[in-house]
Amino acid sequence: MTRRKTYKHPKKGSVQHVRLEHWFLDSDAWRSLSPAPRALYIELKKLYNGHNNGEFFLSHREGARLLNVHRNSIGGYFQELIERGFIKQTQMPHLGPSGIGRSSKWALTEAKINEKTATKEFMRWRKK
């Protein structure tokens, strides 16, 4: 009898969710965010599955569609998250070999990246 690889198959009756811990929500950086960047962070965290930090994609256009805002306003939301230390850009957007564009790759600083400890840069952020 073969064993199922549990990491490839979700448990029966389990539901995916986005977890926001109290220590995270109580940080000065999170409290200083406006609602739109908070919503963007939740969408980014939804893409993180526990093993793909630094490897998930979210373009400005897709982020704007998910938040139901204009694509020109989403750039400021990404910038606000970067400045406060919640996310890092691990790969810049570029054209692939066939001329098809690739969007940025993102990493959450609250989670480990490639077996390196989480930096949690947002915990050091202070209002100026």
Describe the structure.
- With 128 residues, the protein is an alpha+beta fold.
- It has a domain at 34-93 and 102-124: Orthogonal Bundle (Arc Repressor Mutant, subunit A).
- It is 31% helix and 12% strand.
- It contains 5 helices and 5 strands; from the N terminus they run αααβααββββ.
- The strands form 2 sheets. A 3-stranded antiparallel sheet has the order 1-5-2. The protein has a two-stranded antiparallel ribbon with strand order 3-4.
- A hairpin with a 5-residue loop joins β3 (94-95) and β4.
- It is globular and about 60 Å long.
- The mean pLDDT is 89.
Mean pLDDT: 89
The span between the termini is 62 Å
CATH topology of the domain at 34-93 and 102-124: Arc Repressor Mutant, subunit A
Query: Biggest β-sheet: count, sense, barrel?
Result: 3 strands, antiparallel
